[in-house]
Design brief:
The complex is a heterodimer of chains A (about 110) and B (about 240). Chain A has about 110 residues and is an alpha/beta fold. Chain A has five helices and five strands, in the order αββαβαβαβα. The chains are: A alpha/beta (about 110), B alpha/beta (about 240).
């Protein structure tokens, strides 16, 4: 399933999708970036509530397919523009992390 | 130029996790015994024991600094220090308006006591103080600056609420002129691992929650204090922290 298809199937809103055809192979949930850095892996959808710009750096480092911001967490404009430049997909989910993970559990 | 031993991160009995013996008067007295000349009171998201701390420090001949350990929206601890007590109190009001109000469970978390300088409890804060505020780490320096203060990440060498643990590294932005470490032994490894720290003033402080956590004088700044006044020392301290 691609990130674009993930948005269509879950109804999660695209915040920025510079690479919509990126394949999603699994899921990782976590907010403490030092922890996520060592554990999220390439191709995963990473669900977090962390909105700091460093999420873009961590997503790049781990090569995750998409960042899913749960609970409609809002992002500063500079986070979105940096993500666009670095080719990092971000989508927004209106539900808590557990519900967001459940929504994609059957899809990946 | 004179040498000033400092501790710029101390909790009083207003922080629920700190011992009730951490009264403003006891802290000031212990600073004197420890040989510390400049001490900042930095309770979690609160400044209400600073007035008593200032009075007690005056009696003991310690130069007080009004401060707060702010918890940002990302759960990062940031030390905020102010040149003037009044401004610190105003900052406290802004933080109060941006706290997430959860009633404090004294039986679980501990008392949050507001004291005068003569060991009397004059009030309590009913809402849990240390939890995250709505102020993000990105906006914290600007908010603090409005009140003439300076802020920098606390105990970056610790996992719990340290900026490196939360954000994965020491960020380039917002620009901090200082970084606080709890252990001076960790300065060298941190400078090697995070080169961004090399142009920052490293501050070593105890983060004391108990009287016995207050260390004997060790960390110091050399400050130009002629003609001497405590106001001038405080001014020079802030210049040092701002990298001026």
């Amino acid at each position: 399933m691609t990130v674009k298809e993930l948005c269509e199937k879950t109804g999660f809103a695209a915040v920025c999708l510079p690479e919509p055809e990126r394949e999603v192979s699994g899921c990782y949930c976590g907010d403490l970036l030092s922890w996520v850095m060592g554990r999220a892996s390439s191709g995963q959808a990473w669900i977090t509530i962390m909105s700091n710009i460093n999420i873009v750096a961590v997503a790049t480092l781990c090569d995750t397919a998409v960042i899913i911001l749960s609970e409609n967490v809002a992002l500063e404009e500079n986070v979105i523009s940096t993500a666009e430049q670095r080719g990092v997909n971000i989508v927004s989910a209106p539900v808590p992390t557990f519900e967001a993970a459940k929504a994609i559990a059957g899809l990946v | 130029m004179s040498r000033y031993y400092y501790d710029l991160h101390i909790h009083s009995c207003l922080s629920p996790c700190a011992d009730n013996d951490m009264t403003p008067a006891n802290i000031a007295g212990t600073a004197t015994l420890a040989g510390i000349q400049i001490m900042a009171l930095t309770d979690h998201n609160a400044v209400k024991n600073c007035p008593a701390f200032f009075k007690a420090c005056k009696r003991y001949g310690v130069i007080p600094v009004a401060g707060m350990e702010l918890t940002t929206a990302e759960d990062i601890h940031v030390v905020c220090l102010f040149e003037e007590l009044e401004k610190a109190l105003e900052f406290g009001e802004e933080v109060d308006s941006r706290r997430i109000r959860i009633p404090n469970r004294v039986d679980i978390f501990g008392d949050q006591l507001i004291m005068d300088d003569e060991e009397n409890v004059i009030g309590t804060d009913e809402f849990m103080l240390p939890n995250a505020t709505e102020i993000t780490v990105d906006e914290a320096p600007d908010v603090v600056k409005k009140y003439g203060g300076i802020c920098y990440p606390a105990h970056i060498d610790r996992q719990a609420n340290g900026i490196i643990a939360v954000l994965g590294t020491f960020p380039e932005y917002p620009k901090f002129t200082c970084a606080e470490l709890h252990d001076k032994e960790k300065i060298t490894p941190h400078l090697e691992k995070y080169p961004i720290l090399k142009d920052k003033q490293i501050v070593i402080s105890s983060d004391a929650h108990y009287l016995w956590d207050i260390r004997d004088a060790d960390a110091y700044f050399d400050l130009d204090d002629e003609p001497y006044s405590s106001a001038l020392v405080r001014k020079r301290l802030f210049e040092k922290l701002r990298g001026e």
